[in-house]
Amino acid sequence: MGNDVxxxxxLHLGPNPHMGHLAWADAFVITADSVxxxxxxxxxxxxxxxxxAELCTWKFADFQKRxxxxxxxxPFTGKENVTDSWxxxxxxxxxxxxxxxxxxxxxxxxxxxx
Length: 114
Description:
Layout: H1 18-24, E1 28-31, H2 35-42, E2 48-51, H3 58-69, E3 74-75, H4 93-107
Parallel strand pairs: 1-2, 2-3
Organism: Acacia crassicarpa (northern wattle)
Pfam family, one: Mito_fiss_Elm1
Protein name: Mitochondrial fission protein ELM1
C-alpha cells in the first residue's frame, strides 16, 4: 500500500469514480450513513473501516454492528494503521438474496429457469 490518499466528495463534478475506487483501493474508510457504499466495499474482501457509527440511528448502527460481528468491517478511530492489511470472504448478498427469492417462489409452485 502506498501513502497516497484520495477523497471523493459529492461536490465533485464529473463522472462518479466509485466503481474504480472499489477495484483499485487497498482499503476503505467509509462514513457510517451509507449502507450501499459500505455493502459495496464489503463485497471486495479488502479492509473496510467505518467512521461515525456512534452518531447513527439504530437502523444504521445495527447494520454496522452486524458487519463488525462478521469481521467484515472495523470501526475507524483514527488510531489504527490503515496500511495494515486484513481480509475476509467478500460478501455477496445479491446472490444470497436471489437464491432466497428463487427458493421462496419454488415453494409456491413456480418454475424458475436459470
